[in-house]
């Protein structure tokens, strides 16, 4: 049956792990999109189109057992996928939007880049074709993120009847940075996205940056950007002698309060709390961070700030522990592996420098464990969220919801969540290590009553747009 509502993303809601007996274990993932989609119910005729990501997924698709209802997994050539995902999406588009290049040496847009870009096109085309095939007449399609930036334009050509949206979960770079991309690539990327009827962003700041990039990079297309009062902002432009209009909107994804409150009170989380308390030791404050080990998360500067705190304020020795959960991510890329190793080295150095019998200043955990993350949220006195740049950062929104007794939030002004949480957070410039150390001291010293008050207000701001509404708002905005 043709689908009425379609979602497309690189990573889907399920992955397949082969068992020894030749069958497959279908593992369901979480996240905003999964809970958002569940809001429309199983009978809404929704289909999630995603890519097979590893050998397990590929085998499951080929053997016809990748048959989760409402999910279509695409078996795209592994080399094409690797070029598109590791080469372009993670090493170029992610780096541009998070402004991560070390510019004296990077980026280099050479023949290898052009080759990978050709794969990125093929990969996007495979999605566009699958969506065109599966969508009912006039269906709504919401495409996710930088992996699939070309899909809206390609799909529009194949199926002009569809209502097409695209949502960016990342920041957007300002034009001075975005224009590092070769002009023809920048144009192809923007026009690909502008093929959508509507583009969604997490904050006004990213939306505005996207508009500015259109003005700068689509010079010959007579671009006008609008911010009319009480109406959607838009980008208008001329292409092939015809006028085009794409609406833009902000949907600041919030934490799933009901789910988090229920999930964080289950026995497995209580067990992890007991385990962590044992590791921390009695009568100590706890600074918690939970991240994927991702360059933009700024884990190294966070550890440097903690080291500076211990160096400058010996009164905290033996009275504080930093729980740093840094879960490995994108380990196919050498730069991520090096960063992961650097985080571990620095944690070891701090422990060697300051640790004593019975006190380990940094407890680093690298194995992903959601129940343990929730346990850490519950007992944290301080949460450190200091990304260099981040589309939103849901940890900043989840901690206040789950916290038992109130938790002071040290928050980077470069996180999307800053727009909504800044009033009750202690905000920092993520590059300023001594400033971050001062913020940690202020957070550790905050009186418990003030901490509890602020946490209540943070939790209410953090849950103002739960995933279900976030998704439904986008659907509503896309329907004519
Ligand atoms: C983060 C970003 C998303 C992105 C995802 C991809 O969650 O906020 O914008 O889609 O990473 O992660 P992956 O592990 O699939 O590379």
From TrEMBL:
Protein name: Trehalose-6-phosphate synthase
Organism annotation: Streptomyces lavendofoliae
Single biological process term from Gene Ontology: trehalose biosynthetic process
GO cellular component assignments: cytosol
InterPro entries according to UniProt: Glyco_trans_20 (IPR001830)
First and last residue of the signal peptide: none
A GO molecular-function annotation: alpha,alpha-trehalose-phosphate synthase (UDP-forming) activity
Family statement: Belongs to the glycosyltransferase 20 family.
């Amino acid at each position: 049956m043709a689908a009425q509502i379609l979602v497309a993303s690189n990573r889907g809601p399920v992955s397949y792990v082969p068992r020894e007996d030749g069958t497959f274990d279908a593992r369901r993932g979480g996240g905003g999109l999964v809970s958002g989609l569940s809001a429309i119910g199983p009978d809404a005729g929704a289909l999630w189109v995603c890519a097979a990501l590893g050998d397990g997924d590929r085998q499951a698709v080929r053997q016809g057992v990748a048959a989760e209802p409402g999910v279509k997994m695409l078996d795209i050539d592994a080399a094409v996928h690797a070029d598109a995902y590791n080469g372009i999406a993670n090493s170029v588009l992610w780096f541009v939007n998070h402004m991560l290049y070390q510019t004296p040496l990077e980026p280099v847009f050479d023949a290898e880049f052009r080759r990978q870009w050709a794969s990125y096109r093929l990969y996007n085309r495979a999605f566009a074709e699958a969506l065109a095939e599966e969508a009912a007449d006039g269906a709504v399609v919401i495409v996710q993120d930088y992996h699939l930036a070309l899909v809206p334009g390609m799909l529009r050509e194949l199926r002009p009847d569809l209502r097409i949206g695209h949502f960016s979960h990342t920041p957007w770079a300002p034009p001075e940075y975005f224009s590092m991309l070769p002009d023809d690539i920048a144009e192809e990327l923007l026009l690909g996205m502008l093929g959508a009827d509507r583009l969604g962003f997490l904050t006004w700041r990213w939306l505005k940056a996207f508009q500015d990039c259109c003005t700068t990079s689509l010079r010959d297309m007579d671009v006008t950007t609008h911010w009319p009062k009480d109406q959607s902002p838009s980008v208008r432009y001329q292409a092939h002698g015809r006028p085009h209009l794409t609406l833009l909107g902000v949907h600041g994804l919030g934490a799933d309060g009901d789910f988090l409150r229920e999930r964080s009170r289950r026995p497995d989380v209580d067990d992890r709390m007991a385990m962590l308390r044992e590791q921390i030791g009695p009568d100590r404050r706890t600074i918690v961070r939970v991240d994927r080990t991702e360059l933009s998360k700024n884990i190294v500067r966070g550890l440097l700030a903690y080291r500076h705190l211990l160096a400058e304020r010996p009164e905290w020795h033996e009275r504080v522990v930093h729980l740093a959960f840094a879960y490995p991510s994108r380990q196919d890329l050498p730069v991520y592996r090096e960063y992961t190793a650097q985080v571990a080295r620095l944690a070891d150095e701090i422990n060697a420098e300051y640790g004593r019998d019975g006190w380990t200043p940094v407890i680093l955990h690298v194995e992903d464990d959601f129940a343990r993350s929730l346990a850490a949220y519950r007992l944290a006195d301080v949460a450190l969220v200091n990304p260099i740049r981040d589309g939103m950062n849901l940890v900043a929104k989840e901690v206040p919801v789950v916290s038992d007794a109130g938790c002071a939030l040290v928050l980077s002004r470069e996180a999307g969540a800053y727009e909504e949480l800044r009033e009750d957070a202690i905000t920092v410039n993520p590059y300023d290590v001594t400033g971050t150390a001062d913020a940690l001291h202020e957070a550790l010293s905050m009186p418990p009553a003030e901490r509890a008050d602020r946490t209540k207000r943070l939790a209410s701001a953090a849950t103002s747009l739960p995933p279900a509404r976030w998704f439904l708002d986008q659907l509503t905005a896309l329907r004519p």
